Amino acid sequence: MTTALPTLDRSAVRSFVDAHVVPEADRWDRAGAIPEEFLARLTEAGLWAPFLPPEVGGAGLDMRGLGAVHEEIGRGCSSVRSLLTVHTMVSWAVQRWGSDAQRERWLPDLAAGRVLGAFCLSEPGAGSDAVGITTTATAHGGGWLLSGVKKWITNGARADLFLVFARNGSGISAFLVPRTAPGVRVEPIHDMLGTRASMLAEVAFDEVLLGPDALVGPSGFASGMVLSGVLDLGRYSVAAGSVGIVQACLDASAGYAAQRTVGGAPLSELQLIRAKLSDMVTDVRAARLLCEEAGRLKDAGDSATIMATWVAKYFASTAAARHATEAVQIHGALGCAPGSPTARFYRDAKVMEIIEGSSEIQRITIADEAFRQDYGRTPEDQR
Amino acid sequence: MANTHAQTIRAFIVGRHPQAELTDDQDIFSLGFINSLFAMELVMFIEKEFGVSLPNDELRIDNFRTVSSMAELVERRLAGAVSA
Ligand SMILES: Cc1cc2nc3c(=O)[nH]c(=O)nc-3n(C[C@H](O)[C@H](O)[C@H](O)COP(=O)(O)OP(=O)(O)OC[C@H]3O[C@@H](n4cnc5c(N)ncnc54)[C@H](O)[C@@H]3O)c2cc1C
To answer: Which of A218, A228, A306 faces B59 most closely, judged by CB atoms?
Structure first.
């Protein structure tokens, strides 16, 4: 059966998700992996990096469109969305910051999903505090020698190409490391709380010898921009995926409330249940609009997208966690049962509050906005 | 031209740090304004506002040290775009 999508608009992706993701997501969650057969489907559907330009095999999808795709995938399965997120981060880094040679070497394979990417920043001793990473890249015979250990790497167990952030003198730079390079060791991490099928791993780099073409982007003061930019895009994808979780909680809860009766009346007529549903309806729309604003600003190349993305991610991820809790509550014991989609949303939503800038980091960072001119106004209002 | 570029760039930076006073020749790194997020916002702002692209080899600290040096960078990129 062919799964090539005629277009990458929201409705085509929605049908794809309903047909191929929703029915399988709980099985993948229990198995702790996305099967190769479905990865091939994603490839065929052109969903790995559709924002890449057509010249390299992408669909030239804009960032608003990409957000819609990641929302729909996230509605079906946060583990699959996580794979797309990290692949997107790697592909974008090569596209935005890579040399011509790096683009030629990697983009066609990344666009086609022949090479899957993973993003390696966190370490056993450093998460929120990226400055604390201890992985080093030392100049060596015209190239680099990379040493260190990366932990909690989404798709680390499966990916072919790692974008690794390492200390290089006083700054932090990005390096492209093929999984097959001698000295790369991958140790899968099983049984995470949420996004259980996202194939996490610890990835160790033991004096991995890299050519000069492994370094991505500028060095010196601007090298941090590669990391900031990649994290911004990851945050955007997680924000969109979180909107998908809220939508899934709303769909499940409304469906169940309409059909389950207690004391002779359907749940849907109980005021306390209606209040929960009202908040879901409101928050899913608000979160989606915040994501759309961030995407629109990205498409316009407007630097205000950075703060807009923080705000969207903070709002959407906390809404997802809040409403997933309520969705389980509405489902009662069934919400706690084995194979329950709402139980999966609940576990996955918790992860959204931790990754790509935890809620604490969001709250610290977004406060900067309060001390700027015209704080709280959208960029349009300021003009 | 470089003068109005400088004004525009200074207005952007001061908008982010309203308490600060900033001359065109002050080293913004020594003032502690620059973290990697702000550096990225600054690069995006310059690219969009002036319609220039800043390739990797122009992203050197000396090009971003002061408002004046950024204005000169913009001038240079605009001239390059015309002659190219
Ligand atoms: C499922 C999953 C997938 C992941 N995938 C990847 C991946 O693909 N690549 C990758 O590099 N990493 C990945 N991570 C790691 C993730 O990025 C980190 O977990 C995250 O950055 C937080 O770091 P930490 O877990 O070390 O927590 P810590 O940084 O140790 O923080 C612990 C707690 O303290 C809070 N905290 C931290 N600093 C402050 C502060 N200044 N003020 C107040 N509170 C603070 C945090 O919010 C958190 O609640 C993944 C994690 C998970 C759970």
So the answer is: A218
